[in-house]
Each structure stands twice: as structure tokens, then as C-alpha cells.
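Lab notebook page, bench 4
Experiment: in silico fold of construct C2
Operator: M.H.
Input chain length: 152 residues
Purpose: comparison with the prior construct
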Amino acid sequence: MTRTAATDPAAMLAVALQEARAGLAEGGVPIGAALFGPDGDLLGRGRNRRVQDGDPSAHAETSAFRAAGRLRGYRLTTMVTTLSPCWYCSGLVRQFGIGHVLIGEARTFHGGHDWLAEHGVRVTVLDDDACVTLMRDFIATRPELWAEDIGE
């Protein structure tokens, strides 16, 4: 994997948004994520692949985390995600001590980011219109797939 550096939140979110759009083009749920190191180095990127892989655990954040490979510690890393992380992905952030979560939007789905903040994780919600539009359009078009993704 090519590792590039991004320190601007919008540039970091652009990586995750690119993954979300790729997932949608593959027929999946349009959620993307990326894990960045303390200097803005891109460590791993991924997208929700539940549909494509037939794997209910293949969420965007877990895909990005797996793509990053093993690290000695995660406290100084930033998980960037296009959508507020669900409880499963919030648990991943807490389990491995990821220090910062940068969220594209939390209007269409309010996951576990308040809980993360209560437990010392720095949380930034950008409220990005492109992320909101992507999810709203998807939910309107594929409500049954969205309901499956969020466990309803």
C-alpha cells in the first residue's frame, strides 16, 4: 500500500469518502474509513464490504484497521469515517485505544461517538454535506440493505 500524508481533516475525509463511493459502486453500503498515523501518514483504508464479501463483520472501520496491519500502539492514530461509527466499530476504537475519531457525518446515523468521547477519545464531527447526501440517497434507495446493516 502506498502511504501518503494528510493533515487537513478535509483531505483525510476525502480518502474515506473515496472508499465509500467505491463500496456503493460495488453494490455495497457506502461507508468508508481510513486510519492515519500521528504525522498524517495513511496507514490503512477500507470500506464496508458486508455485501461484497458476505461478511457481517466487514465494516469500513474494521477494514481500514485490518489494512493498516499491526502497530505497537494506536493512541496517536486517527480513525476517519464517513459515518458515525456503530457500536461494533466504536468498540474497536476503544479496544485498541485509537485516540481520535474524525467523522464525516452523524445526521443519518448517530452511532457510538458520544460514548467514545465520554471515555477519552477525541471526537470531531465534520457534518460534511457530501457524506450526508451519500447516505441519505442510499437509505432512500436501499432501505432494506440499510436496515440489515444497522441490525434492524
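Observations: The longest helix spans residues 9-25. The chain has a mean pLDDT of 94.
Next step: discuss at group meeting.
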